[in-house]
Amino acid sequence: MRQKDDKAFAIALSNIAKGMMTLEDINLLKPRIVSNENLEIMGDAIRVFRSNAEVDAYNTKVLASLNTEGAIANAYDFCIGDGLASIREKVLNNVKNLKTTETYGLPFKIDLKVGAKYMMTVNIDTEDGLVNGACGKLIMIDYGKLQKTNETVPCRLWIKFSEEKTGRKARANFHNVMQNRNIDLSLTPIEPVTRQINTRSTNFKVERKQFPLVPSEAMTIYKSQGGTYEKVVVNLKKGMTRSELYVACSRATKASGLYLIGDFVPPKPPEPNDAVAMMFKNMRSERMLKFSLEFPEESQEERFSIMFHNVQSLNKHISDIKFDKIFLSSSMISLVETWTKPGDSLEIEGFKIVQRRDCNDIRKPFGQITYLRNDLNHQNILEKYEYSGKNHIEYSSIKIDDICIISVYNSPNASLDVLKRSIKEVITVSKQFCENIIVVEQLKRTAMDTIWGGEVQIQALSIALSHPIYSYIQFNSDPKNRHYISLDISLQELVDRFNKRTAGGHLKYIGYKSDMNKLGFCVY
To answer: Which class for 49: exposed (0-12), middle (13-18), buried (19 or more C-beta within 10 A)?
Structure first.
């Protein structure tokens, strides 16, 4: 809880959300109103505005006022594909006008000023805290020269992040460089990244190389969600909703760190017929949830269960798996990103290793391993991996009874075209051995192909199911069953169809632990 050290402030915020502020709450927040003439008392406070226009204007104003070293970081857009030069030029020009939200967080131009605050807009390394929303201050700029033009441009930025743990791994990787150059060891190096931008052109694809940062002297209320700051300045505007006021003010950890500019008007409570208020009222009185859990290891049901997990170093987590009852109650354990080497001992009691792929030289985000319960028989159908630049795809297919189980891993920036081709290949081969196919996969994209008869949204963290996709083809080709699955079906709807036995099978979730991002399921 952000306000754990300021109980009165926490209560006032809760009452803001309900629209039921007391006189005590109002008297706590009214003194937090400051005038623009007293800006110096706010120090390094984050400014929160309602609109992007207000944020951009304030960021521009602050950057212009800084008399420090500065530079402009221009994005480098590369067009890939064959076609007319005029179309290529048009595609590149169109990309220049896209919003940052349409370019995977990479702006066309960044105004860099030493001493200014910046925010990460791309997830670079989630384990290291270098994620979208991480904030820090620009302390130093490294420069390099472009080979073609000999132009001097920024090539590396050194950021002092608000939280010390953010960027620890990146700092460790540059430790020798930082020592040799006498660079403050608390600074984190940030270099340009490359992302492919969606365009309307079918012949050309555009890749953008840019620093994954934007100025963050101010941010919108929406963008501030999830953030925690010691000092926050909220610019109160007429028409600010109850929820906007709550989100903006609750970014501060204490009332003493909250500064309000403008007139503070306590929000009104919701109307009696407000849909949300009525829903909460019903939930408290009529729709109380019954707490119920099913523990797979205690179930007497006969079933075949699969546990799929991106383990991110099996050596690091194998002890966790060996003592995890959900893993040990599974029929099959499929792990990706094992980071293993051939000499590693990876046995799990009660299971046999039926498929394994290790790193050849150094440990990296690569490798698969499949465990099968000792009493089960299997047949290895296919095992393959494919590199596309720095990205890769790994997959394997194993037949157990009359089901082929395919395990797929695709690195975050792997080509969707390569992924579709790989999945099509492994499914085609597997179909020669069995009709029933299950794919367990880490997939955060939209699967789209004409052979699937339309677009299927698959957004679950751990799994994508190929069997319902193939049922989907069958239904699309059969007018009598076309109504079963719509073109914009979501994963949850797909799961519901399975549970109702209207999509060619039955699927049941058997366990989930948020701390390990695990998702298991059974197929009968």
So the answer is: buried
- C-alpha 249/C-alpha 296 separation (Å) is 43
Amino acid occupying residue 412: P
Q: How far is CA 91 from the centre of its chain?
A: 28
pLDDT bin (cut points 50, 70, 90) of residue 268 is confident
DSSP 34: -
Residue type, 471: S
Of the candidates 267, 218, 249, the one whose C-alpha atom is nearest the C-alpha of residue 2 is 249
Integer Cα distance of 286 and 281 in angstroms: 8
pLDDT per position as a tens digit, 138-166: 999 999 988 888 889 999 999 999 888 99
Cα angle 46-47-50, degrees, rounded to a multiple of 5: 140
pLDDT digits (tens, 9 = 90+) for 347-375: 999 999 999 999 988 898 899 999 999 99
Q: Report residue 304 CA to chain centroid gap.
A: 30
Joined together, the tokens standing for residue 201 give: 């052109």
Query: Which tokens go with 238?
Result: 């007429």
CATH value of 306-465 in 3.40.1830.10, 3.40.640.10, 3.60.10.10, 3.40.50.300: 3.60.10.10
Look up residue 465 and give its amino acid.
L
Q: CB-side exposure of 40: number of CA atoms within 13 Å?
A: 1
pTM over 0.85: no
